[in-house]
Amino acid sequence: MDQWTQDSEFEAQESQFKPLNAQEAQAWRQRNPQLSVGRLIASQCVVTLLVALVAWLIAGAAAGRSAGYGGLAILLPTVVFARALGRQATHAGAAIARLFGWELVKLVLCIAMLAAAPRLVSDLNWLALLAGLVLVMKTYWLALFTGRASAPKTTDI
Q1: Nearest to residue 74, comparing CAs of 90, 52, 93, 55?
Q2: Rounded CA gap, 124 and 71, in Å?
Q3: Are 74 and 111 a contacting pair, CB within 8 Å?
Q4: Which of 27 and 153 is assigned the larger pLDDT?
């Protein structure tokens, strides 16, 4: 297949695009609700507490503190990120720049918390910290697979 054939197929697909009217758009939104940021953060809080409790029951208090701190190393930067992006942007370019900027802040905050872990957590258990970190990070996927909530509201953030 040559380039000209591919271009004409693309143009044919493009011409079939039909914008939705208000009723069709509303029906689509009801069929595909957005994931609530507040529900995601609440899920991460619950997973952080569960991981810390299980680690404490299995390996002792030091492992519980370490797993809890690992979860907090993901949870707290996520809360900062969500609060920062909850504000309205004036135009698309500013929104994209803010998204990448706050994602960088989130990453740096997470790394700083991990670097400070040996000084902040007594008898640090690195394996438990890693377990808390990974399990709380995977909560994003758990929230996507277990169902979707209503559209995010400013009170959810």
Answers
A1: 52
A2: 14
A3: no
A4: 27
